[in-house]
Specification:
The structure is a single chain. By secondary structure, the protein is an alpha/beta fold. The chain is built from four helices and eleven strands. An eight-stranded mixed sheet has the order 6-5-4-7-1-8-11-10, sandwiched between helices. A hairpin with a 2-residue loop joins strand 2 and strand 3. The longest helix is centred in the N-terminal third of the chain and has 11 residues. The protein is globular, with a radius of gyration of 15 Å. Keywords: NADP, One-carbon metabolism, Oxidoreductase.
């Protein structure tokens, strides 16, 4: 199963200057719980936005750079399809960004785990539109802003129709 996991504002903003534009600890906890123990597929810029590889996950980094050096335990692929081919066949695989990789994967994904951040924010990277004719909302959980979260947000899960 191919699952896209992302956090996007109401205008589909994902980030700016290769950084997230909010800090939502509960979203980070959910991301960790959902992706731990799995293969995570990402573009090079997304990988480079991390201080180090995320623990307890196998990273597959997509880049066209032939001589790109990856840390031990990380895998390299030159395309989304080649990245998917490196993953175990009967396990859930997570697409974790960035914008271009989401765009390439939305047609072939089986599920979307989206954190909808209830704000409109300036960004340079965006999540693709979710076509509700192709995707069915099967889970929705609202969270109010609080002392740790500057924005209201909703966890949403979509499955392909």
């Amino acid at each position: 199963m191919l699952t896209i996991i992302a956090a996007a504002a109401e205008n589909n903003a994902l980030g700016k200057d290769n950084q997230l534009v909010w800090h939502l600890p509960d979203d980070f906890k959910r991301f960790k719980a959902i992706t731990s123990g799995h293969y995570i597929v990402m573009g090079r810029k997304t990988f480079e936005s991390f201080p180090k590889p995320l623990p307890n996950r196998t990273h597959i980094i997509i880049t066209r750079q032939k001589d790109y050096e990856v840390p031990e335990g990380c895998l390299l692929a030159s395309s989304l399809q080649k990245a998917i081919d490196l993953c175990p066949k009967n396990e859930e695989i997570f697409i974790i960004g960035g914008g271009e990789i989401y765009k390439q994967s939305i047609e072939i994904a089986d599920k979307i785990d989206l954190t909808r951040v209830h704000t409109t924010i300036e960004a340079d990277t965006f999540f693709p539109e979710i076509d509700t004719k192709k995707w069915e909302l099967v889970f929705e959980e609202f969270h109010s802003k609080d002392e740790k979260h500057d924005y209201d947000f909703t966890f949403l899960t979509y499955v392909k129709r």
